[in-house]
Amino acid sequence: MSDPLKVAVAGLGNVGVGVVKILEEHKEMIKDRAGREIQITAVSARSKTADRGVDLSPYTWVDNAADMADLDNVDIVVELIGGEEGIAFTLSKNALKNKKSLVTANKAMVAHHGALLADMAQENDVAMRYEAAVAGGIPIIKAIGEGLAANKLSQVYGIMNGTTNYMLTHMEQRGLTYDEILDEVTELGYLEADPALDLDGIDAAHKLAILSSVAFGTKTDFDNVYIEGIRKIQGIDIENSKEMGLKIKLLGMTKYENGTLSQRVHPVMIDRDLPIASVNDGFNALVVDGDYIDRTFYQGRGAGEGPTASAVVADLIDIARNHTGAAFFKPASKLVEASPVSINQRRGEYYVRILADNNTGVLADITNELKSAGVSVNDMKQKTASNDGRVYIIITTHETTETALKDAVNRIDELSVVLEPTMSIRIEKL
Ligand code: HSE
Fold this sequence. Notes:
Strand content: 25-35%
Number of helices: 13
Largest sheet: 12 strands, mixed
Helix content: 25-40%
Bound molecules: L-homoserine
Number of strands: 18
Shape: elongated
Radius of gyration: 24 Å
Distance between the termini: 49 Å
CATH architecture of the largest domain: 2-Layer Sandwich
CATH class of the largest domain: Alpha Beta
């Protein structure tokens, strides 16, 4: 058997601790599967004294994680610090420069700097792996990059953020308000340190930008992901979607066609009978369409110590097996710069929620503005919002354009009877 593969782990939060546990607990099994032992040699974290429930005494403690890139007895640096820039990025670049392979769970860093890191890995003839950055326990990077490598893929979409999926699920199942479920996930510790990453769709967008590159061989382009989170969703929208046979999900969707790339993360209303509509709680799910496979569907836990650490260790095993190929499954120099497709090019149906005074003629005023914007109504209903005469007017449109819909919403919001910014959700036929 070859020499052991020596690993430095930077960051000992729950994922880092999970990696230590798996490598210890499954030591012999992993050795057989990898063809060599995978040995942690060094660890680093903010606090040396914190009790993490694992024995770290066999490993060299490194105070400054950035120094791990210079250690002699290290073949691979596992970066679990997080953050787009800062020490995580410095360590990752230095590790690659020093010809050490890089395994990371850092979605923000890969989404922003994936092409650069892939290029550095290639130049230095080492591997860069990031399975844990997208959908934790679902091996979607390997599924797309290896299992589906024979296909020309057309689209990838899915539930890429477990926290917001949990929130939407429990707003529907338990009738909780947005604020109530937000309190619950805060209490449960589900939210990212910066909750905006989850609530505003940024976390899902990081993962989507990575998936685009893996699926289509395009350069990671986070800046052109259209992003909307779930903050505007209210109980009434969930109730209405149910009545319409639809379900609200926060989806990431990426499509590549003739050199153009459409990347979007936003709430959608989808058919309740679709398999992805019944993926609830903190689970993630992904759909990948390709020319020879038609459609594939993946589901699993997208976060947490076990699933994320499992993905990190799978990457280590991959490298131990000498699978050190290109980070995005083609030479970094061949990653394509795609032309971004603007959200304004979307065509489709929309759900629209308007809060208005229940005055005579309010419906006529609203339909008049829809007519002026060229938006055709499919269905319209009125629901009492409060006992002081305010009403919700709920509209679904026929197929229209994003620009026409925005025009209609702007016009409606200028009416004096309209009491809050009008909210719309895209209805997707998947
Ligand atoms: N905040 C992320 C989620 C963690 O809720 O899915 C996993 O990336």
